[in-house]
Design goal:
This protein is α/β, with parallel strands linked by helices. It is about 60% helix and about 10% strand. A five-stranded mixed β-sheet has the order 1-8-4-6-2, with helices on one face. A three-stranded antiparallel β-sheet has the order 5-3-7, with no helix packed on it.
């Protein structure tokens, strides 16, 4: 089960500046260790490679990497803006987490920091002629890494910002979230049912601010419940919008401090997160189809392609039925939450497309075909929900 520490670490790692800083620090560390390696240099090489041999290379590298980095940043921003205008603004946050772009830009910036710092150290007479040989070896490694990054960047630019690339990124993220939720339909907690009876003394813990629920720390909630010898029932789910001072759940705890601690286990923000929200990826894909069906774009082919991707996700990565949660021991037995509803996923995927594409026969034919296929889903809940949606479309 994903813990809050792992989620926070993953969010930090997907930031562009993190990789840039790490590679820049590696560049500076290599220059700091260069004088320490001089005793291991053979005597013959010391007299062949000096500061006069390496300084021109470092100067060219510093000036070239600055220009390449600036150009690459402009290309990245332009491509991401174009992709978000073609698909949906919500896709922009996913594009910013593209690891290929981050690694390439970090390599460029790291090469610039390395070469500029080395030039400064040589002119400041910090390095001896012996250290110049070590720096020359490091420079060869940096040049090789930069060349590989350029080749990787050229290949990546061939599809960066395109509709196909954007849809692939959205689908991949949606698939990962659905797969994680399929393993833990109740986020590791017990499945809440209508038969659950809360004690009369149960009290509600409320949201600290208004916004979307981005993450629920189930481990912390379970620990609180164990310490208080109580049970906690969560009445909302990741992706829900809550208002400040409205109930998040119920707990049989009399201590106000513990209730406030339980409320702090809910991360609430301005935008939804993929960490525990299986419907978000489906919503973003559906929004892309809506944009394609707008009169200003008029691209039903993209909507048809999106329907196929949504159908594939729901067929292959559908979370297990709620009753399956009872077949294994819950990781957090003191906490209960309702499993993700199949109707919620189906509505997030197809409801908006059915509304905006009602007048397009090709789109509706593809949508009816997708629902007919999902009506044969092994999950009986999905099969029934698909049949109900198809009947509703036929009656409208």
């Amino acid at each position: 089960m994903i813990s809050w520490v792992l989620v926070l670490a993953r969010r930090i790692w997907t930031r562009l500046w993190v990789r840039v800083v790490l590679l820049s620090l590696c560049s500076l560390l290599s220059l700091a260790f260069a004088p320490l390696l001089t005793p291991f240099i053979p005597e013959g090489i010391k007299y062949q490679l000096g500061r006069d041999a390496i300084l021109p290379v470092l100067t060219i590298l510093a000036s070239g990497m600055l220009a390449v980095t600036t150009f690459s940043l402009n290309v990245m921003v332009s491509a991401y803006r174009a992709a978000s205008s073609m698909a949906t603004p919500r896709a922009y946050r996913l594009l910013l987490e593209d690891t290929t772009t981050q690694s390439v830009l970090a390599t460029f910036v790291g090469g610039f920091v390395y070469s500029l710092s080395a030039v400064i150290l040589f002119h400041a007479q910090v390095y001896s002629d012996d250290a110049a040989v070590v720096v020359f070896g490091f420079t060869i490694v940096v040049v090789v890494l930069i060349v590989l990054a350029i080749l990787r960047w050229i290949d990546h630019l061939s599809h960066l910002g395109s509709m196909d690339h954007t849809l692939q990124i959205i689908e991949a993220q949606a698939r990962e979230t659905l797969r994680n939720r399929a393993r833990r339909p109740c986020l590791g907690a017990r499945a809440a049912t209508d038969d659950d009876i809360l004690p009369v003394s149960a009290r509600a813990f409320v949201a600290r601010k208004s916004g979307y629920i981005r993450f629920i720390d189930m481990a912390k909630l379970n620990q609180l419940a164990q310490e208080a010898a109580s049970d906690i029932h969560i009445g909302c789910a990741p992706g829900d919008f809550v208002l400040r001072d409205t109930p998040l759940g119920m707990a049989n705890m009399g201590d106000d401090r513990v209730l406030k601690t339980a409320a702090r286990c809910f991360e609430i923000g301005d935008v939804r997160s993929f960490d525990q929200d299986p419907a978000l990826g489906l919503v973003i894909l559906a929004e892309t189809a809506q944009r394609a069906l707008s009169p200003g774009v008029n691209d039903p082919g993209t909507a048809v392609e999106v329907i196929g991707r949504l159908q594939r996700l729901l067929w292959e990565e559908l979370p297990v039925p709620p009753n399956a949660e009872k077949d294994h021991k819950a990781t957090f037995p003191r906490v209960s939450i309702a499993p993700v509803a199949v109707t919620t996923l189906l509505s997030a995927a197809f409801a908006a497309i059915a509304r905006d594409g009602a007048k397009d026969p090709d789109v509706m034919a593809r949508l009816h075909g997708a629902l007919a296929a999902l009506a044969d889903h092994p999950n009986t809940q999905m099969a029934a929900a698909a049949q109900d949606m198809q009947k509703a479309l036929n009656q409208s």
